[in-house]
Amino acid sequence: MSILDHSGPAARAQFWVWWAMLIVTVVVSLSVYALWLYTFRRREQPQRTPREERHIMLRWVLGGGIALPVVSIVALLVFAAPTGRSMLPLPLPEGEAERIEVIGHQWWWEIRYPGEEGERDVVTANRLVMPAGEPVDFRITSEDVIHAFWIPRLGGKRDMIPGRHSTIRLEADVPGVFGAQCAEYCGAQHTHMLLHVEVLERDAYDAWLAERRSPPVPQEGFDQAREAFGEHCAACHTVAGFPDELVVDDLEHDIRGPDLSDIGSRPTLGAGVLPMEEGAIAYWLQHHQTLKPGNRMPPHHHIDTETLQDIGAWLETLEP
Ligand code: HEC
Ligand SMILES: [Cu+2]
Question: Which residues contact 183 (CB under 8 A, 6 or more apart)?
């Protein structure tokens, strides 16, 4: 997650701003310390009239207090402005940038790939898949409090503000896996709001998306698990293709949980709290309030272990 390990044009521009600021800061600090040491030099004080004294003081205030900061800040601004510009969603010479929506929730990430007319949106959570070598426009917002979207090795960051949409353009040079983290304190589980970013070649990205875009296959088996899911979970969680008649929605609040349609293929649970492996979902369902205290999913004490294990086993099969 290091900004110094840049892997895209925006991050590279920010890398140079970082170095420029470091160098300017070091030069300014060293000069100030040098002047400070200079004042310790013992010597005969020349006799000055109050007028001369005022004159000297004024020179320092104007030169060091006003001119120097103005010059250094303007220099940094001239250096940094193109960096900010590189992350704006300006028109491209050829075609349009890929568009991905990212919505912050306490404490997880909703990722949406809007469909063309008539197509479904592909929805997933806590894992962002994007194509390599081309600009991607991230349209970001928040559902509750202010979060911030930041993929250090690609560039950023940008606040995600409830009720407001903003767009940040990022590009990854090559395929790879990158870490990302909510960068604005958003409550008790802010640290457990990790985003797993996977950059794929264009072909692999198209295939990944197409798999999820195609109409869901009817689910077979796991009848009890699906019924229990309809009763206890479906009010908050969506699973593509899940039959409406099984959904019991008697919630008196509007908390929403991550879309679980492709949960079996995701790398982690709870926004990076647990690695996904066999049995991990059942474990998460029983211990999520200890693993991630205060998270918005209520505890499932009223559901017996066997049922939770059944549901977990079924969810693990959900892959596009
Ligand atoms: C009141 C709404 C609510 C109910 C009911 C609920 N959940 Fe959740 N669930 C959430 C929220 C919110 C999260 C995100 C927690 C976090 O990571 O901070 C979550 C997270 C999860 C995750 C992890 C998803 C991921 O992307 O890592 C799974 C799996 C899950 N829930 C399954 C279930 C199952 C199975 C049930 C029923 C037994 C259930 N949930 C009931 C709200 C709910
Ligand atoms: Cu956050």
Answer: 147, 148, 149, 150, 156, 157
The finding on whether 190 has its CB within 6 A of some atom of ligand 1 is no
Q: Dump pLDDT digits (tens) for 260-280.
A: 999 999 999 999 999 999 999
Q: Measuring from atom 43 of ligand 1, which residue has the nearest CA?
A: 297
**Residue 156 Rama label (left phi>0; alpha psi -120 to 50; beta):** left
Ligand 1 mutation pick, 297, 302, 306, 310, max ligand atoms within 8 A of CB: 297
Strands (E), 184-248: 194-200
Q: How far apart are CA 111 and CA 128, in angstroms?
A: 7
Mean pLDDT of 300-320: 92
Q: Is the dihedral of CA 254, 257, 258, 264 positive or negative?
A: negative
Is 281 touching ligand 1 by the criterion CB < 6 Å? yes
Q: pLDDT value at position 33?
A: 95
Ligand 1 binding pocket includes 194 (Cβ within 6 Å): no
Q: Is 276 in the pocket of ligand 1 (CB under 6 A)?
A: no
| Ligand nearest to the Cα of 191, by number | 2
Ligand 1 proximity of 313 Cβ (cutoff 6 Å): no
3 state DSSP class of 224: helix
Token pair 């293929």 in the structure block, residue: 265
* Ligand 1 atom with the shortest distance to the CA of 189: 18
Q: Which domains does the chain have, with CATH numbers?
A: 9-85 (no CATH), 98-213 (2.60.40.420), 223-316 (2.60.40.420)
Measured CA to CA, the distance from residue 116 to residue 160 in angstroms comes to 25
The separation between the first and the last C-alpha atoms of the chain, rounded to the nearest angstrom, is 29
Contact 23, 165 (CB under 8 A): no
Q: Is 196 in the pocket of ligand 1 (CB under 6 A)?
A: no
More confident residue, 290 or 218: 290
